[in-house]
Q: What sequence folds into this?
DNA sequence: GATGGGGCTTCCCACGATGGTAAGGTCAAG
DNA sequence: CTTGACCTTACCATCGTGGGAAGCCCCATC
């Protein structure tokens, strides 16, 4: 099995397989006389493992750990679970951040007329975003007239 | 005002101010005889605008657009709103993706004993993640009865 | 005037994970 | 033997940010 076949079988591009090889995420593939990398079912399974882990958002570093646990028949599931839970926590934190961004923007967008007039609470927020009155947007937004541009 | 003062006043690092300068996000700063960049309140306000927009997750490209609208007194708020709404949609899409990852991992984690035994539904999922039975994690994984969660 | 510390300048490198491309070797089918 | 598909390495780009080196400048203190 050469790299292209392994790529199709695993869902990982040949490019990325070489990259994983290069950074040592997977053991260096054996080579043919013509210096072609060759793969067996075992390597393809590793690549699918990596692919799936990437799909779940694990970083390369985490995947390195997961792979070593996966290869270790005697690993305690506790360690795997710890990695997963840490990643879930990181995802949740990032989600919360993005949710906050989206909520703020939804609110500003809701307050923006979205017509031909130039007055815009979104730009007003970006201009003076550090001011302590984010919740009080009525139609009087125009009266804040602090545009000094 | 030199770049360090502008950085402190805007919350943008000097490094990033130079970068924004370089990529043309802001107009090239005027220079002193000693080739030092100099800033006025106006530029600091632009930098704060950028900072705030970055906090809300806008890309540089979007910020370029937002800045040009901000500078244009006659802009229609419609255009600003369109950018904001598009960004909200992108955020929501990304949040949904990450939420799906987190939910899957939470489920797997919940099913993992997390003890000294090597059997682990998380690794099992990563191994055969592409198989068509994602919900069917048989209880036979833990043949000795469950102790935790 | 000299000296020293801190700030400024440009330039280069790094990240993470991926894609692109170019130049050259190889394999298999016609 | 030719052709086209495939492999190899090597380099560049992304995006936004940080780090650092080498060298110049400003100001205060001696």
A:
């Amino acid at each position: 099995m050469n790299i292209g076949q392994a790529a199709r079988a695993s869902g990982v591009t040949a490019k990325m397989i070489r990259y994983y090889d290069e950074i040592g995420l997977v053991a260096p593939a054996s080579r043919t006389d013509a210096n072609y990398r060759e793969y067996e079912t075992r390597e393809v399974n590793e690549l699918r493992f990596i692919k799936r882990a990437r799909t779940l958002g694990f970083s390369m570093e985490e995947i390195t750990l997961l792979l070593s646990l996966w290869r270790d028949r005697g690993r305690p599931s506790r360690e795997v679970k710890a990695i997963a839970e840490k990643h879930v926590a990181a995802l949740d934190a990032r989600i919360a951040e993005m949710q906050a961004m989206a909520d703020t923007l939804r609110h500003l967008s809701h307050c923006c007329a979205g017509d031909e007039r130039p007055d815009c609470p979104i730009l007003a927020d970006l201009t003076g975003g550090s001011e302590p009155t984010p919740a009080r947007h009525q139609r009087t937004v125009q009266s804040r007239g602090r545009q000094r541009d």
Remarks:
- Residues 77-111 of chain B form the longest helix (35 residues).
- Residues 3-56 of chain B form a domain with the Multidrug-efflux Transporter Regulator; Chain: A; Domain 2 fold (CATH 1.10.1660.10).
- The two ends of chain B are 60 Å apart (CA to CA).
